[in-house]
Amino acid sequence: MHDILPAMSLAPRILIVDDDIGIRNLVSSYLEKHGYQVDTAGEPEEMRAKLGAGDYALIVLDVMMPGEDGLTALRTLLKNGGPPVIMLSAIGADIDRIVGLEIGAEDYLAKPCNPRELLARIRTVLRRAAGPRPQASASVLDSARNDSDMVCFAGWRLDPMLRLLHDPEDKEVALSDGEFRLLRAFLQHPRRVLTRNQLLDYALGADSEAYDRVIDVQISRLRRKLTFGQRGAEMIRTIRNEGYMFVPAITGSPGR
Asked: Rounded to the nearest 10 degrees, what angle do helices 212-225 and 177-188 cross at?
C-alpha cells in the first residue's frame, strides 16, 4: 500500500454512496488496499452530512437507491459545487447513464462492476481533477517531447500519449475519458462524415452497450470544450440525417 501512495495524509479521500452494504464494504476494502482513504454512506442524506464534515476528492454514487435516487442527488451535489462523481448504474439502465452524463457526472460504470475497473476509472478522474501540471513537471515532460508527438488543428494541440489538450493560448483543457476518445476518433477521420454508430464503435468499442444518444451528449460536451473566442462551434459539424464531421485540417498522428 505504501508503494502506491507515499503517505496516508496525502491519500485522496473517497466517498462511496450505495444502499447495499455488501457493495460498500467490498469497494471500500479494495480501494483502501490500494492506498485510498474511504468513507461510506447508505443514502444521499448521509452523503451530504459527511460532505459537510470533511473534504472528498471524489464520490462514487449509486443510481438506484430507495427514497432519493442517485440522479437527483447528483443534481443537487453539482449545483452546490461538489467533487467529481462516478455513477454506478444497473446493467441495461442506459437512460440512467445518459442522464448522469448530461447532468455532469465524470464517468459511469454498470453494476456489478469489477473493482479493478472502478479503481482505473477513479485514477483517471482524479488525474483530470488535479488540473494543469505544475510548471516544473510540465517543463520536464515538454522537453522530452516535441511537435512530432502532437496532433494540431485550428491552433489547438493534443498529445495523444499523455491525453493533454491545449487551446490556442496554450492553456490546458481537461477532457473526460469519453471526450478524449471521441476527439481522437474525429482526428483519426478528419473531414469525413461519421455516423453515430461509427462514432460509438471508434470511441467506445464495438462491444459497447451504449446507443447513439450517448454520442450526442458527448459531442455537445466536447463542442463546449473546443470553443475558443468565436471559433469552435463549427469544428464539429452536424450533417443532417447522416452524422458528424470534424472540419479542421490536422497535422500529426492521433494514434489508435
From this structure: 90
Helix 212-225 vs helix 196-204: crossing angle, to nearest 10: 80
Is there a contact between 183 and 159 (Cβ–Cβ < 8 Å)? no
Contact 255, 160 (CB under 8 A): yes
Exposed (0-12), middle (13-18) or buried (19+): which is 7, by Cβ within 10 Å?
exposed
Instruction: Please name each of the domains of the chain with its CATH number.
Output: 8-129 (3.40.50.2300), 135-246 (1.10.10.10)
Cα–Cα distance between 118 and 31 in angstroms, integer?
Answer: 9
Phi and psi at 109, nearest 5°, equal: -135, 145
Cβ distance 191 to 245 under 8 Å?
yes
Give the closest residue to 211 by CA, choosing from 103, 98, 62, 88: 98
The 8-class DSSP code of residue 133 comes to P
Which residues share a beta bridge with 86?
60, 107
Query: For the whole prediction, is pTM greater than 0.70?
Result: no
Q: Per-residue pLDDT tens for 43-98?
A: 999 999 999 888 899 999 998 888 888 888 888 888 777 889 998 887 555 666 66
Chain segment 200-226, per-residue pLDDT in tens: 877 765 444 455 567 788 888 888 888
Is the Cβ–Cβ distance between 108 and 71 less than 8 Å? no
Name, in order, each residue with C-beta under 8 angstroms of 233's C-beta and a sequence gap of 6 or more: 223, 227
- In which residue are the cell numbers 448521509 written? 46
The pLDDT assigned to 2 comes to 41
